Records
---
Amino acid sequence: MSGTDTVRHIDTGQEMTRFARGWHCLGLAESFRDGRPHGIDAFGTMLVVFADSDGQIHVLDGYCRHMGGNLAQGEIKGDQIACPFHDWRWGGGGRCTLVPYAKRTPRLARTRAWPTTEVNGQLLVWHDPEGSAPATELIPPTIEGFDEGRWSPWQWSSVLIEGAHCREIVDNVVDMAHFFYIHHAYPTYFKNVIDGHTASQFMESKPRPDYTPNPEKLWDGTYLRSEATYFGPAYMINWLHNDLGPDFTVEVALINCHYPVTHHSFMLQWGVAVREMPGLPADNAAKLAGAMNSSFGEGFLEDVEIWKNKSPIENPLLTEEDGPVYQLRRWYEQFYVDAADVTPDMTTRYEQEVDTTHAYELWQQEVDRNMAARKTGIR
């Protein structure tokens, strides 16, 4: 056997030909209730989002079925979106309700209306190449206390990621080690649970003092407890418990979501809300949520630099500390095949806890070296 026969080659996979079946968040619902139509590039096409006089939000295909006018450049008239080209009026259900200059409206004048729902103050749209209606149990859950106003307003951000498929961000669910190298924390506990249409990550971690501006302010118990679950292929709720001091825990909800624009780009969105707590005024909670939004945004952008410059890889070479990458990808595949082709191994419950002991010991040595170098001014 020659030396080249033992070389591990990267399989970059096949070109994607469809977008995931499932609920996708388009943004904060209230941002679409401003009396204007909004164009959204998603799923290889363009959507138009608008609210009717009752505040009900509708999503239609963005191009008029008459002559292809861009409905997002039109205006809302009554409860319809009016095309800027010839003023054809389209209702939220997808039917053309009026052609102002014509004796009669064509009976077959219909466009695609996308199923929508609102959860946690966000607008979600259902996508399925087979055109199925979404089952109720697939709708992501409401964060406890959100509808009762026990959370600060969302601090919301978005960024277009070009040159990468959205599976890259989903892979992070099982990637324990990247939290140390990319996000400057080290996990002390890490577990994944894959079950049905959900994939969860349970993690406890500490901040890296060698990447903390004032490490002396960290108390021994400072750490983060995190429970993050993808509900379907594109919408994650991350419950974060930040222990900032003895008997002082800040409860944070982080939404991590995305929708595909093309097969090589996606819109990444994230929002942060802080749960009300005694002694924390509402305006301070909003400021804290804003600061955390910026912090998480910095972390996401660190991921982005990796995604934009890495190779797609279908056959990653793994160690036991890398977590259930193949099992997660098998789970993720269920959203890219016809419903009839979903197999039990895509949805059967699977659990795996990654032993962080060995990695933690080595990481602690690296941190100690960096801290010693910082004291002597040598990095």
---
Amino acid sequence: MTIPETMQAMVLTGHGGLDRYEWYEDWPVPEPGPTDVLIKVGACGLNNTDVNTRTGWYSKAVSEATTGGAYDEVGEEDPTWGGRPLVFPRIQGADAVGTVVAVGDKADPSLIGKRVMVNGWLRDWDDPDNMDKTGYYGSECDGGFAQYATADMRGIATVESPLSDAELATFSCSYTTAEGMLERARVGPGDTVLVPGASGGVGGALVQLARLRGARVIAMASEAKHADVAKLGPDRILPRGPEDLRAALGDEKITVVADVVGGSYWPKLIDILERGGRYTCSGAIAGPIVQFDLRTFYLRDLTFTGSTVLPPEVFENVVRYIEEGKLQPVLAATYPLRELREAQQAFIDKTHTGNIVVVP
């Protein structure tokens, strides 16, 4: 096919509110590097990293919950997930799915015409397991909020699936994040996993993936979203924040809390963990600053694991589950790419249950 010289793209021009996105009809189509492929983007999912990077929420200067709006103060040196400055202008979008239309000089030409998912984690392919040498797609390089995007051929996966591009675009960030959390917490048969925020993208992924590991799963979500959460197969569903969590759980013995919420409710989650239990975290949308009683931590022999940078096999596992039909996409809504601002506001407001995708 003929590759155009320019494309439509939503470009982030600086940290702040949604007004920092600018729409372009004539942004240059990127040139693939030697080991890169050029992807005609079919769909790209939204995730919290997009929001938090735009606003600069990762900066230690910010202590409040994720709001999606501009903050009064954002540190210049640590506004991104990796604690480093972001280079502007930047095309965000980590969850890109599309068709390979061209390849670099050293890339595999047989990839042309194949449908692919992008692995959000950028790696030094001479040292792929080194966490200190990682970046994130749409953060340290341009991503999928455009008609075309490039990616290293070693950071993509071809996918054989009847699912649409929009459905596939719900998986990369949410499901690899969830799988990484469960792997760090060593979840398996015999565990009972409590999932706060189960109506979100990562929360819904945690429910499904923990079930695949043979665990019992208890989801927490606002009651208006219980019917949607029930479709994911949790063993029980609780309200979003019961005043007496222990009473709400009854005789349930919680061995793992898999959390992306944090906030003021956090101590109650820790208090109900069984002795020797595990807490795993990859987010703090309700607030990053929590009250932590060290006595609960050490007297109950608890293990805490943070989960951000993931080994390559996590993405490979998720792709395999997709191809085997073991995961259910939770596609809440699709928006045209030019309506990214509206889509991201709906994501922030939790207007929908599940994942939101933009389509060029």
